[in-house]
Every structure is written in structure tokens, then in C-alpha cells.
């Protein structure tokens, strides 16, 4: 692993196959239902850092969405598939809806709204450790015209006492005529199965939409890039997460070893110095943590080669956004 040299624009794309579906034998949950097989799409929406990705990972049972305490962590719409004996739930993890300040922000919001229009059930996430605010009210008005069934999900209930939770549930109930309101904790697992049962109950009758060994349809290289970006987000200054993008340039399988070559893009030389750290120490730490997550995902040994490069103002440049997958 080595900190790389400067480059003023991203490379022109991967040289390897990007479209391979990641397969994994999904765990089957205990079935509770009315004897009807149901299958469909659902998504969790909410303002940034409402716990959407953590909840998605808890339901699917494996990390398919990166999590961080920084806002705007999720940038790709990642589909995860939960297989049960009488249902198949396809969860779509979306970026947080926010007031955009860049072209990237506008495109992320467009992704959210496009997803809303295509799913069967929408779970609007409200963090229990924060009062209902303007962002929550804005999202509630945005979903008013949609055809999907809308469920309120009060997340992070493990962080508040019962009296505060009761206040949050009452405030949420006044925002919209939700089909159901479910308090959960993705960290402790509290009522996660109950939430799944509620969502499945609102899905249409349908045969399975995916084979039973498919966990996510997101290409492996995108998942790997997201895991690298998650590692790079930890411990950096608050303004850096918006400026970091990762592109997996090449993957080579040699026996039991997978060699991965990836570039971490930032917008300025000062940001590059922060990501690399003194003597390359921070980038080395990013690589160690990312490699462990990637090996868990792939189930085999990984050699990870990271370079930090500069792509000036990439969040505002349509050409560079396309090259970086947005």
C-alpha cells in the first residue's frame, strides 16, 4: 500500500468487469404471515444520519451499506435482498435527502426521489435522539403524493429513555397519516424483526424477484469502493467526507488472493495531505481497516493498493461526476 502521486482528473474507468452480482447465501428469518407469498421493494428515507444504512444492514444481516456518523455517507442506491420462507423483501438504501449545495448534492436528491416513485413501501426514519425538525417535516410533505405505503420508523431508541421516546412517537404521529409507526434499534436489534413483518405485510402478492442466493445486486467493485470510503471517512475533519470519492480501478484474482487497485479522490492538495497523514500513516490505517472489511465481503485474502489523487472541484464538474460513478 502506498500513497500515490498527484493527478488532476480521475482515471477513465475500471479496466475490469464491473457488473458482477455479489452472491451470498442469505439467512432465512422465521416466517410469520397469512400463508400468502409476498415480494416487493422498500426503502428507508429520512434526513442525513437518521440511521437508514445501519437499519438496512441489520435487516439484511450483512454489511451492504456503509455507515458513518458523518452526514451524506451513502451515495449509491444499494439493493439488499432478504429471503424468507413466505416473502422476499428487496431493500433499497438511499442517500439522505438534504438541501444541495453542489451538483453532486442535486444528483443524490434526484436518486432519492426516483427511488421513492418505484418502491412499494417507504419507511421514513426519525432518529429518537433528536427532536422532529424542519427536515423531517419537509420529507413528510414530499411523500404526500406518492402511491407507496408509508411507514414511520423511529430509530436509535436505545439512546433515549422511555419518556423521550413517547414524546418522539407522538410528534411523528402528527406529521403524516402513516400506515404504521415502529420504534426500533438497529444496534440492539430491538423490534427489527417486527419492522420487517410490518413492511412485508404491505408488499404485494408476488413470486420471488431474485434467486435465493442473491444478497445484493450492487456490483462488487462499487461495494468495495464504498468500504474503502467508509474507512477513509473515519477520523477526518468534518468537511472532508463531502470531498472524498473512491474508484476501484482494477481487480485481479490470482489463486486465493484478490489484488485490488483503487484511487481515493479529494478536491485539494491540503485534503490529500490529511488523508495520507504524516509519513503515510493515516492512509496505511485506512487500508488496514478497509482490507479487513473487503476480505469479510469476498471471503478470501485481499491485497489492497491505495493512491490518493486530486480531482479539483469534482463535486461540481459533470464530467468528473460521471467518471466517479455519479
TrEMBL record:
It comes from Pseudosporangium ferrugineum. An essential GTPase that binds both GDP and GTP, with rapid nucleotide exchange. Plays a role in 16S rRNA processing and 30S ribosomal subunit biogenesis and possibly also in cell cycle regulation and energy metabolism. Residues 236-312 form the KH type-2 domain. GTP binds at residues 46-53, 93-97, 155-158. Residues 184-186 are annotated as: G5. Residues 72-76 are annotated as: G2. It is found in: Cytoplasm; Cell membrane. GO terms for cellular component: cytosol; plasma membrane. Belongs to the TRAFAC class TrmE-Era-EngA-EngB-Septin-like GTPase superfamily. Era GTPase family. It is a peripheral membrane protein. Residues 1-30 are annotated as: Disordered. Monomer. PROSITE patterns: G_ERA, KH_TYPE_2. One of its GO terms (biological process) is ribosomal small subunit assembly. The gene is era. Pfam families: KH_2 (PF07650), MMR_HSR1 (PF01926). Residues 155-158 are annotated as: G4. This is GTPase Era. It comes from the Bacteria. Residues 46-53 are annotated as: G1. Residues 93-96 are annotated as: G3.
Amino acid at each position: 500500500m502506498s500513497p500515490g502521486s498527484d493527478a488532476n482528473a480521475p482515471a477513465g474507468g475500471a479496466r475490469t468487469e464491473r457488473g458482477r452480482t455479489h452472491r451470498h447465501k442469505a439467512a432465512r428469518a422465521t416466517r410469520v404471515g397469512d400463508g400468502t407469498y409476498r415480494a416487493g421493494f422498500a426503502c428507508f428515507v429520512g434526513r442525513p444520519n437518521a440511521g437508514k444504512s445501519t437499519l438496512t444492514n441489520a435487516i439484511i444481516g450483512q454489511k451492504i451499506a456503509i455507515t458513518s456518523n458523518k452526514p451524506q455517507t451513502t451515495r449509491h442506491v444499494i439493493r439488499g435482498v432478504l429471503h424468507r420462507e413466505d416473502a422476499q423483501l428487496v431493500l433499497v438504501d438511499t442517500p439522505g435527502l438534504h438541501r444541495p449545495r453542489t451538483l453532486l448534492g442535486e444528483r443524490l436528491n434526484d436518486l432519492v426521489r426516483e427511488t421513492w416513485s418505484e418502491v412499494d413501501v417507504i419507511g421514513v426514519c426519525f432518529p429518537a435522539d433528536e427532536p422532529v425538525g424542519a427536515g423531517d417535516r419537509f420529507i413528510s410533505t414530499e411523500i404526500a403524493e406518492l402511491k407507496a405505503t408509508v411507514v414511520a420508523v423511529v430509530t436509535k431508541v436505545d439512546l433515549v429513555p422511555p419518556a423521550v421516546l413517547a414524546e418522539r412517537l407522538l410528534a411523528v404521529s402528527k406529521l403524516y397519516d402513516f400506515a404504521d409507526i415502529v420504534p426500533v434499534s438497529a444496534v440492539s436489534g430491538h423490534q427489527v424483526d417486527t419492522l420487517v413483518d410490518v413492511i412485508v405485510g404491505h408488499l404485494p402478492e408476488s413470486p420471488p424477484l431474485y434467486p435465493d442466493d442473491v444478497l445484493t445486486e450492487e456490483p462488487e467493485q462499487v461495494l468495495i469502493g464504498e468500504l474503502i470510503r467508509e474507512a477513509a471517512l473515519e477520523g477526518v475533519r468534518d468537511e472532508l467526507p463531502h470531498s472524498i470519492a473512491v474508484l476501484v480501478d482494477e481487480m485481479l484474482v490470482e489463486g486465493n488472493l484478490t489484488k485490488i487497485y483503487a484511487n481515493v479522490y479529494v478536491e485539494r492538495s491540503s485534503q490529500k495531505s490529511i488523508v495520507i497523514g504524516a509519513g503515510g500513516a493515516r492512509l496505511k490505517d485506512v487500508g488496514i481497516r478497509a482490507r479487513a472489511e473487503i476480505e469479510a465481503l469476498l471471503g478470501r485474502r485481499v491485497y489492497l493498493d491505495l493512491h490518493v489523487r486530486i480531482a479539483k472541484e469534482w463535486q461540481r464538474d459533470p464530467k468528473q461526476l460521471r467518471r466517479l460513478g455519479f
